[in-house]
Structure formats: C-alpha cells, structure tokens
Design brief:
There is one protein chain. The longest helix has about 30 residues, at about 350-380. Strand 1 (about 180) and strand 2 (about 185) form a beta hairpin. Helix 4 (about 50-75) packs antiparallel against helix 6 (about 100-125), helix 8 packs across helix 9 (about 160-175) and helix 12 (about 245-260) packs antiparallel against helix 13. The protein has a two-stranded antiparallel ribbon. The radius of gyration is 22 Å and the shape is globular. The chain has helices at about 1-10, 10-30, 35-45, 50-75, 85-95, 100-125, 125-135, 140-155, 160-175, 200-215, 235-240, 245-260, 265-280, 280-285, 295-315, 325-335, 345, 350-380, 385-400, 405-425, 430-455, 460, 465-490, and strands at about 180, 185. Helices cover about 70% and strands about 0% of the residues. It is mostly helical.
Length: about 500
Amino acid sequence: MIDAFIQLMSPWFVLLSLTGVSLGIVWGAMPGLSTTMAMALLIGLSAGMEQASALVFMLGVYTGSVFGGAISAVLINIPGTPDAVPTMIEGNALARRGEGGQALGMAIAGSFIGNWIGIILLIAFIPVILVIALEFRSWEMFLLAMIGISICGSMSCGAMPLKGWIAGWLGILVALAGFDPIHAVPRYTFDLPALLDGVNYIAILVGLFGVTEILRVLPRRQQPAIPAAVGRVIPSLRQLSRYAVTSVRSGLIGAVTGAIPGAGANVASFLSYDIGRRMASPEERAKWGKGSYEALVSAEVANNANVGGSMLPTLTLGIPGNAPAAALMAALMLHNVVVGPTIEVDHPGLIYFIYAALILANLLLYISAIGLIKPCVKLFSLPRGILMPLILPICVIGAYSVRLNMFDVWVMFAAGVIGLALRHFRFPIAPIVLGVILAPVADENLRRALLIFDGHSLGFVLSQYVGTALLIFLLLIFAEGVLRLWRTARGAPPEHTKPAE
C-alpha cells in the first residue's frame, strides 16, 4: 500500500482526484442528479484515460457526489441524491433557524468521518463483512428492502406512521409497472408501450422533490430566503466529540449495509437515522425531525461509510454493492479490469491502489467541500423566484438524460403535481421515492424466494436464521408504529406532531 501512496502523490493523480471530487460535489448538489447518474455520465471522461487515472478519477466522483447531495438538501430542501433525504429533514430545519453553516459543516465532518470508517473496515475486516454479506440471499434481501421502506415510513410521519407506510406502498405499486422480472409478463402497463420498461425512479425523485418544491414555493409572496453568509462552517472539536459514539455506530451500520449487495446508501442512511433516534437521549430524540445535529451526523456518516462497504462485494465477488458501484465496475471493464475473486491474481496490487485512491479522495473531499460551500451558498441564496425557474431545466435534464425518453419528463411533471397534493394532505413523500427505488429488489427477491421455498415447511423458512432475525425486526417496526398510533389515539403527546418532509 505504501507503493500505491507514493504513486498517488504525483501531481497528476492529485489533480485528477481533486477534479473528480469537485465534479462529484457539484453534480451531487444539483437537485435530482444522483450519484449513479454522476458516475454513469462521467464514465465517458474516463474512457480516454489509462487504467490508474480512470480509477482515481471515478473514485473521486463517487466520494464527492455522495456528500454533494447534502448541500441542496440543507439549503433549498431538495435532496441532491436519494440518500440525502434524512439530511434534508434535519439540515433544512437547521437552515431555517439560521444554522445552515453549522449544518453544512457537520455534514462535511460526518462525510469525512464516515468515509474513514468505511475505508478502515474495508481494509481491516474484509473476511468478517464478507461472511455477513454472503448470508443475505433472496429471502433476506426482500426483508431488508421492506425494512428500509417501513423505517422510512415510520420516521417520516411522526405520530401517524400509517400515512408513511401507505406512501411507501404507493411507491412499490408505481415501481411494479413494466415487465415482471421472473416471467416477463407485463404488469400495470395499461397498454402503454412506454410503461413496458417500467417507471424511472430518477424521474419520480426529481418530480416529487424538485417540481413539487418549485410548485410549492413559487406562489408564496414571502419566500424563505437563505442568507448569503451562513456563518462558521467548520465545527469545533468539542462539538464533534459530542457525536463520537454516534459516528462510530453509524459508520458501522453504513459500511455493513454497503457490503450487502443491492442495499445501497438509501437503506444505510434511513436505518442509521432510525437506530440513532431510538438510542438518543429523550431530550435529543425530541429534536428528531425538527433540526437535530445528532440525526444529521447519523445519516451523513452512514451514507458515506456505505462507499467503502459497497466496494467489498464489488471487488471480491464481482457483485456491485449498489448502483454507483456498478457504474464503477463498468468503468473498470472499459480498461479490461474484471473484478471478482481472482482480482488480486489477475491484477496484483490493484486492491491496494484502490484503498489508497479512496483515502486520497476523502482527504481532498474535506478540502474541496469547504472551498465549494461558499459558491454553492451564493448560488442557492438567489431569490426563489429566480432560483426555482433555473432549477426547472436541470430537473428536466435529470429526468430525460437517464433513458433519453420524453415519457420520463412527463412522469416527472405528474409526480410533481401528485407530490404537491400529497403534501397538502400531510402525506410524506420520502417513503414513495424509497419504495420506487427498493421495489424491484423486493419484488424480484420475493418471487425468487417463493420459488426456493416451494414445497418446504414453515420450519425450513424459519431455519434461515438471518432471515428470521430480519423478519422479527420488521415486525417490531410495525409494532412500534401501531403502539405510537394507539398512544396518539389515547391522547398522549406524540414525539413528533408534524410529518417530516
């Protein structure tokens, strides 16, 4: 690894990594332009590079874009990436209190710490995480997807978790349109050829969070202005030390979740966000959903630790931990690098080079993020009447560019109108997006699990110990939500009175 560090200290590699990180941050900050899209569209820039340069550049983009989503989430209440939704819930509430700089500073610090935890676990505990990841088969992957959707529903609607669950199930229903993944039977297409390929989740994301926000904010006479100067950005060591335990716990959750193929940063951020609330002190728990630094750290550390965790199955099994990791695999394949169990034999030293490139990207992330905060604040501090119309073309480009399909643009506008109606009736919209994203994972793995379990007894199903543990956890989520509903019906003061948006 020392040789890899020495190689990466050349000005060319440092410049490439800094460029990738900066492009990733700016791209991730643009509403609706996800980490996956950043990776997929910037692969073209790496195609003409040699292998090492392409790898350094793409890992920089990956690292930067995961954090970048927090900027727009905090400043304008639109998550740049899907996993920044919990950051939006807490960070924008802090920004409305005039603490946007501190919120962004904590997000940067959380991202920096999360990346370190993910990288350290990737290097030191590969065998342990590998064993855990291999235990997740079809049944377990279905349960994990349902846990992610259910947690999001419970967390985003306070005292009325039923509304959150309904929103999540609505997202699942939307995502089922198209060909059935097992038997290739059309479902919910209504004889529309455009629906045979399903509904693009990026279009849903952009519509629900981008177009809905534009429609909601523009008619207001008094626009919620973001100050041009947000004050101190770099948090003090004393403030950071308060969340040391939270950071370590969230980093472990994010890295382990990232090592589970298909789980992704969405599940990691919401899972860590939920566990953080349950383990917080009563005083801190009362702030959850209303602007809590501990909640912000829980989400940001987890989704960035997910980067290191997602590299584990990608490099060792050839199974991408999430969609951005799949884009990274594609970039490697352009340079004749096939990842998998024989990667160290076929490409000696490449894994150590990847470790070193991730560490370099994380160091440059902190520097680049601090430098880009002020310009981003200037950009997003424009009057909403100017800023929102500027964001609309970006939303259209984001929806159209994934599949180059105008149908996705119409889906985006429809989702925006529906999102406005849902917010009027106080339904949370974050569970819909997560339902659309995770529904294909849940659908395909449930169908496959049913085929595997066909002819077997209930005892055989329950003998899958990891799956049984996940099933119990899922039932506990629903039980806790029902208990919260019961307490609300009896007139007890709920922990949250307003759905988090």
